[in-house]
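From the methods appendix. Each design record in this collection lists the tokenized structure first, followed by the designed amino acid sequence. Records were kept in a plain field format so they could be parsed without special tools. The example shown here is representative of the layout used throughout.

RECORD:
FOLD TOKENS (172 positions):
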């Protein structure tokens, strides 16, 4: 009998935790309800349209492929030669220009998606098209940032990459 009571208690507890959990009451999303584009904060929009990274290059950054922006910030600690500095600056400038342009396209695609839901004029077909546009732009944006990390890695030597990782806190 005691084991049955224990079993029933453990069977009921997860259900009770779910009922009392975050799915009821005020949503964690409530503060975002006033956003112009619900899926993007003002800071997200600013970063995307200025060509910022938005965390899109983490697979490169956290696996030893330095980013051009941070390399430029750390040029003295990394001991960049003039020719390296010029190549990294060119990679950064091109990346930022392309990312800014594509970021603007991505924000517009998210705005279109938001508008369709706001107008309550969304169908599955329209949803598919709107998502395809937004995700195609996000893919291009991510490629722009990751490709810049690849390019910069070819400019640096192994010691500079190790120093970058150390200064960024990725290695000891």
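DESIGN:
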């Amino acid at each position: 009998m005691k084991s049955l009571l224990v079993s029933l208690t453990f069977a009921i507890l997860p259900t009770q935790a779910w009922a009392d959990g975050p799915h009821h009451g005020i949503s964690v999303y409530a503060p975002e309800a006033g956003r112009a584009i619900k899926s993007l904060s003002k800071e997200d929009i600013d970063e995307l349209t200025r060509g910022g990274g938005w965390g899109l290059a983490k697979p490169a950054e956290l696996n030893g492929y330095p980013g051009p922006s941070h390399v430029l910030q750390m040029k003295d600690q990394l001991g960049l030669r003039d020719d390296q500095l010029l190549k990294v600056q060119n990679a950064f400038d091109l990346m930022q220009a392309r990312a800014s342009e594509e970021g603007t396209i991505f924000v517009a695609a998210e705005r279109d998606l938001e508008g369709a839901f706001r107008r309550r004029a969304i169908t599955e077909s329209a949803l598919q098209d709107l998502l395809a546009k937004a995700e195609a732009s996000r893919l291009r944006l991510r490629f722009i940032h990751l490709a810049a990390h690849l390019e910069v890695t070819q400019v640096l030597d192994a010691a500079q990459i190790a120093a970058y990782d150390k200064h960024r806190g990725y290695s000891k």
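APPENDIX NOTE: Residues 4-13, 15-19 have pLDDT under 50 and may be disordered.
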